[in-house]
Write a structure and sequence with these properties.
Bound molecules: iron/sulfur cluster
Oligomer: single chain
CATH topology of the largest domain: pyruvate-formate lyase- activating enzyme
Structural class: alpha/beta
Helix content: 25-40%
Number of strands: 16
Strand content: 15-25%
Distance between the termini: 16 Å
Radius of gyration: 21 Å
Shape: globular
Number of domains: 2
Amino acid sequence: MKSGKRRSDSGLEDDACAPSVAPTLRAADGTALYVHLPYCVALCTYCDFFSVVAGDTSRDVDGTVTAILREAQRRGPTAPRTVFFGGGTPSLLSIDELTRLLDGLDEHTGFRASAQEVTLECNPESLDLHKARALRELGVDRLSIGFQSLDPSLLATFGRVHSVDDSFAAFRAARDAGFERVSVDLIYGVPGQTLDEWERDLARVLELGPDHVSAYSLAFEDGTPLTLAVERGDLERLDEDTELAFFERTRAQLIAAGFEPYEISNFATTDQRCRHNEGYWRNAPYVGLGPGAVSKVGDVRFGNPRSVGEWKRATLADGFAATWEEQPDAAERIGETWWLGLRTLDGVDPSHARAVAGIEETPGEPDSAEREARTLEDQGLLEHVAGRWRLTPRGLPLADAVARRFLNLDAFRFPARDAAPGR
Ligand code: SF4
């Protein structure tokens, strides 16, 4: 069943195969749609997303829009329930480019009539009132704005090209254009940052009245300029106790302000959870378009090359550009559902995890994932509440390590049904 192992940028190991099944797959109606727009003004020092500098001679946004629409025609989902434009910096596209992209996607998928949520990621330097109004008219109903920090020196450390004032102006533009759903992205736990400074900055963000905040502990990804600076000794990471204090005080401050900590790094006011991301955390299918984008259709996960030129050539030739695919086996599928779900406040329903994996229910017999959960319960890291498993307050700061325990489950304990991917 398994035709390849998993890739590192989903937190798993590299060793996937060239696509053989994926080209025949068509996502079911309603499948979530992700569109990757890879252009940025400059590359941030902490970032390992696939993006290219917009000023490069290779920049051909018009050609990228054409290729995304070709992909959408070939394998875009009909009537997607959610749409997410990520990157890169989608707001960097001109209004004309965005109009062609969204009109074309609607023609191929009908998303304007079907989607319960259409999010577009923005950076402060490329969102003004004129563009925000245009986005509303094009069918976007939620903006996620990358503030990252309110400290000018940290913005410089990150290599961000916008100012603090730009961030406030972008937020005001979003509200003035009529966006009721606006999320702010922030990063904390940065070398040189103090807890007091962070709490003061977070309070200033909360005064704006966002309905959603994504607050990420700074990650040091392999090979990024920030990680290299730490390796050279030019920057010193915060110690573990201080990182833990940042995590706990961030959570406490946002909860006190009325936000629900519905995922380890994501906080929402009432009914303002990001529905698109909730689908990922439930291990639901999705279709990704654009260079570097990943799709999951049925049990098959496949991905486009992280090269604009390679992706574009293949897409324009036949509408399909994926260079790898993997078909996790039943143990891997259930492990992924637990791995993803344990990061959420709702936690994991074992029956749902079995159903996603296509695993038989054996009455009275816990599967390997549940046995792992019970071990972690004994260690005080997980709790079983109303039929669902979730992290305890003690397990929350260890979410990554706890969740990863489910990625190496005993395959012999999972009698899989004959599960056919949705072709
Ligand atoms: S703007 Fe976003 S995608 Fe672009 S380099 Fe910075 S963090 Fe990465």
